[in-house]
Amino acid sequence: MTLRDKMLAVIADTNDSVAEREELVEMIAIALLTRKNLFVLGEPGQAKSYAINLFRRHITGARQFERLLSKQSDEEQLFGRVDLASLLPGSVPPTVLEQDATYQNQRFNLRVLVEGIGSMKDEPATWEKLKSGTEKLELYRAALSALHKSEPTVQTAGKIPEADIVLLDEIFKCNDGVLNSLLTALNERKYTNEGRTYPIPVISFFAASNEIPNFNDPQEKILEALYDRLELKVVTANMEDRDTRLAVLKTKQAGTFGQVTVTITLEELRQMQQEVASILVPDAINELADDILCELRKDMAVSDRKYLGYYPIAQAKAWLSGHDKVESCDLLALKNYLWRLPSDCEKVEAVLTRLCVNPMQDKVNNIRGMALESQEEFDAALGDGSKADTVRKAFIKLRGELTHLYQMQCSLRTAAQSDGETALVDDLLADLEKISRKAHEQTHFTYTTLEEIAALN
């Protein structure tokens, strides 16, 4: 079974236990494959946290940190607290002792000596050995203390700095102190305490809430930066299908709900991330993504940062779909990346569907539309009973516009990726030539193909 097959099996297994959450489950997978953060918006009881936790259970060796945030939550609950003992004179940070091979060897030898003291003869030599071992250990510990004098350490066991997957429920209820630390953690995977910066190995942060802040409210606007760092966003709803609800209920009653039948290791997930990052992104896809950006900006705000960071999501979708390079349909996954407010969802989905399901058709239609507009303008000039010089100028203008559109058509044909797309572009050329031929006939000019006209320019 390939790594892709394993991930698809995990997705299918999770979907079996969280009905009507296919979109959320796929986004959980994409978040983990791209090290992105995911925000889930939905009413209480819609299996938001359950879906994330269930997916995580399929990853063996993945350490998870989960916390329900409130205004009373502090940094210590999330990131750990400073070990006060590490600030006392003569103390040594526990992490230093744990990682020092010489200290651990001496400690082991002393332990062996202490455990065997009962079987040894009660004579001065025995106690001298014990004294010598103790003094060696204390002397070495004192040397380490001098090297790490008053070096504060943070006890991070079971906290975010030692987690692979983090789930923060009701994330927008955090206080200002926690907010500042979370911003750095989500964006840079770092945490600073007592002047020292610690790396955070977290793969993805998952956050859930039943509401989003009112960014027009000055008191809540401070949360906007945190919201923006949750790149992927999904909106959940209650189960709509009656048969689905009854099936889930029956599974829960049978005690088989939420069982894990397939797993992947943390190392396999890292290998999957490497495979995803190696998926080719063609120039045509980058151009299509730019078309999407320009179209969306007519009705909503989309930052340059959003555009410049789109490709990992597309790569992950292509990998899951079995593509060796990103295709236009893979950009449909951007539905959960490009919207900022829930009211934007329909706009984003409509633009993606129009431009990505059959992008060549849309481009062909745009060129054909420009050609028809040019023809209508020419016909209007012709129908006004204009003088010969005016008609000649109108014809030259139309011919120039058609020549430009012909060059655009040639570029589309070069970019065509299938026989169907090639046929669409060829039909466009036939329409352009038809308009050109008719104009030649109306003005009594000798007909010349657009290819020949373009060659002369």
Automatic annotation (TrEMBL):
Occurrences of domain MoxR (ranges): 7-92, 143-251
Protein name: AAA family ATPase
Organism: Dysosmobacter acutus
Listed InterPro entries: MoxR (IPR045427), RavA-like_AAA_lid (IPR041538), RavA_ATPases (IPR050513)
One Pfam entry name: AAA_lid_8
PANTHER family in alphabetical order: ATPASE RAVA
Domain ATPase RavA-like AAA lid: 296-351
